């Protein structure tokens, strides 16, 4: 309309630019806030929907219904936007304001009653249809969200039941079997082997109690670490494990961390000369830190200045003492491949601190 009949007037072009800018502002704010912003839509209703028709009449030379019609059409889009962005009361005010101003605009140009009625009906109908569609889509979205919540709750319940069954089976095969054997007098409870077995199973029960008291921790990570601990205990190693505020991590991170823990516990069992290891897993400002410590014979860390897990390692100070973090190369210990390389592969890092007679401390960090 502007290019065909009003190309020689400045105001129609300014009005067209204003309409484009108002629309761009609405969608820019919607993309930024992930919803239609009320003030931007209100500005569109007032300026483009209500004031622009009078400006077209006063300065744009719009004296007929044909010349002012293109400005009036913008009122329909303004009412549709208002239906999406506003509540019921504010929408009613916006629609009445649009109807009143557009009626006055058509009366100024002495438009036909049929044209005026059809246009006002379109303004109201646009608002009603947009409001109904918005209400319907929101209602369907709420139903989908509710169904997802029910599905997640059911899945969590199934997971808890499976976990409970697994714990019951483990208790039956370990603690209950040990207590039954002692009660029947079939074994001597004072032997060192039986005391070690009781200590391992007491540690397992302690972890179950702690887990029951802290259900909000990252279950996937904890389950993976607990599997490594149980595997080591099945081979005769007693493990005292503690978990504190574990962060949620991707499944591949939990798996890599658990396998590195498995290797560290195997090293304790095979090389440390002690039957007891200590595992601690905790979150620290979004970082996961897992340590495996033993009080065994220890060893001399070689290559102090070589490459550690995830970068160059050297001596690090902690409270004034030297922490040895260089890679370890000792026959029978697969730290390079099973710990350092595995942690590097997932963006983490591993550190070892040891000295002859002082035990070993393996620290796993993710991210590095």
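^ structure tokens above, recovered residues below v
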């Amino acid at each position: 309309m502007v290019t065909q009949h009003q190309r020689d007037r400045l105001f129609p072009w300014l009005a067209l630019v204003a309409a484009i800018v108002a629309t761009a502002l609405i969608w820019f704010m919607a993309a930024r806030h992930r919803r239609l912003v009320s003030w931007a839509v209100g500005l569109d209703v007032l300026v483009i929907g209500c004031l622009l028709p009078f400006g077209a009449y006063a300065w744009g030379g719009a004296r007929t219904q044909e010349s002012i019609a293109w400005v009036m059409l913008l009122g329909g889009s303004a009412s549709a936007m208002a239906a999406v962005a506003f509540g019921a009361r504010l929408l009613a005010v916006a629609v009445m304001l649009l109807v009143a101003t557009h009626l006055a605009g058509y009366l100024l140009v002495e438009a036909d009653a049929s044209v005026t009625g059809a246009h006002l009906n379109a303004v109201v109908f646009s608002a009603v249809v947009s409001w109904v569609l918005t209400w319907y889509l929101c209602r369907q979205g709420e139903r989908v969200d509710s169904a997802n919540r029910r599905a997640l709750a059911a899945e969590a319940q199934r997971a808890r039941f499976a976990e409970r069954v697994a714990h019951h089976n483990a208790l039956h095969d370990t603690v209950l079997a040990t207590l039954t054997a002692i009660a029947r007098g079939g074994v001597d409870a004072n032997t060192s082997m039986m005391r070690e077995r009781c200590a391992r199973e007491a540690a397992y029960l302690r972890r179950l109690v702690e887990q029951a008291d802290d259900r909000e921790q990252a279950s996937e990570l904890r389950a993976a670490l607990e599997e490594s601990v149980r595997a080591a205990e099945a081979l005769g190693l007693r493990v005292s494990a503690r978990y504190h505020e574990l962060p949620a991590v991707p499944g591949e991170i939990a798996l890599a961390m658990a396998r590195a823990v498995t290797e560290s516990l195997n090293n304790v069992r095979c090389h440390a000369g002690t039957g007891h290891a200590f595992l601690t897993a905790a979150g620290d400002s979004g970082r996961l830190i897992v340590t495996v410590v033993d009080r065994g014979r220890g060893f001399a860390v070689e290559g102090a200045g070589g490459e550690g897990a995830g970068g160059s390692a050297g001596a690090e100070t902690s409270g004034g003492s030297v922490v040895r973090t260089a890679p370890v190369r000792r026959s029978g210990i697969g730290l390079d491949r099973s710990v350092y390389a595995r942690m590097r592969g997932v963006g983490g890092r591993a550190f070892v601190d040891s000295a002859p007679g002082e035990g070993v401390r393996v620290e796993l960090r993710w991210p590095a």
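The chain has two domains: 2-147, 188-366.
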